[in-house]
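Students often ask why we bother encoding 3D structure as a string. The short answer is that it lets us treat folding as translation between two languages. Here is a chain of 384 residues written in the first language.
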Amino acid sequence: MLLSRVPYPLEKGDKLRAFNQLKELSKSHDVVLVCLNANRLHSKAKEALEPYCSSLHIIQLNRLLIYWNLFLGLWNKKPFQVHYFYQKRAQKQLSQIIEHELPAHIYVQLLRTAEYVKAYSFIPNTLDYMDAFSTGVARRVQHSIPGLKQLFLEEADRLKVYESSIFKYFTNKTIISEQDRDLIDHPDKEEIHIIRNGVDFDFFHPIEKKKKYDLLFCGNMAYPPNVKAAQFLANEILPIIHKTRPETTLLIAGATPVHAVKQLANKHVYVPGWMEDIRDAYAESRIFIAPMQIGTGLQNKLLESMAMKLPSITSPLANRALNATPETEILIGENAQEYASHCLDLLNNTPKMNQLANAGNKYVNQYFSWASNSSKLLELIQQD
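And here it is in the second language, the structure alphabet:
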């Protein structure tokens, strides 16, 4: 199992997906986990991962080489993400691991690590696209500062080509949702298997705590789609709510909030940053709202909020992957006024709030179990 990051702590979507798939795969297979690492290793990472691995290898990337490779990438048409993560020394280390372990299957998460195993396509393998990255980057263009627009356009084009060209090197291909699969530009994209995310229901379950906040939005607060959603929520939606209900409070919780997110804090908006137990954020809030405007894939934050029985509101874009029933299991907002109206309606109608929370909770419990969704991945691996 080759990952572009060490999947601990679980503050990013790819880490969460990898960690839980690792747990499920380890129940019936010996898993050799290989993680690239460009940052400081968390002190508890090895302790958290080793119980699920027959062996754990962390390949440290050279930071100076990352910048050098990105510079050289200006004259090479592979995606900059590939240039960022690919280093020849790391390739040599991985090759030694493969030749020593002789794996029966190689599982690779994300395009950015696919380059490492192209030479081993004779071994049965699986590539997890996870999201349609090219579309995700393209959607950032209109929201980016002028100097970055051309860079995002270039990267989106490179990713689109790479998503298609890498296809032939892998026995199996997986992705998180039908909407993401449809965005892959390859004639045989229907061969890509849908492997959805799940929820750890032993961890995320309803918890009774005193409510401190009316609204909650959480996630990795350095991730541009989350930053954009937080700004939209605090600057455009909340002021409309305050015209009718001026006491309404908002909690924006999550790891590594960038300056633009920290600036949103005021007497009604709380931005605590990293929380030791994110369940406290859910349990202490009345409504979860994720007004996602850009990005791809399935929003784990919605799965977690619904698992903890919070009434949840999101955008049509985010619900395409979730596929919950509007007005029954989730509420959908098209603009700031609609989001504000949904929030006010729920805050003033406790029975409706409870009904929506119960229906959403039942929905995620039925369709988003890690064990159930990972069983499809196990079937792919075992058939090769």
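Translate back mentally: The mean pLDDT is 95. Keep this in mind for the problem set.
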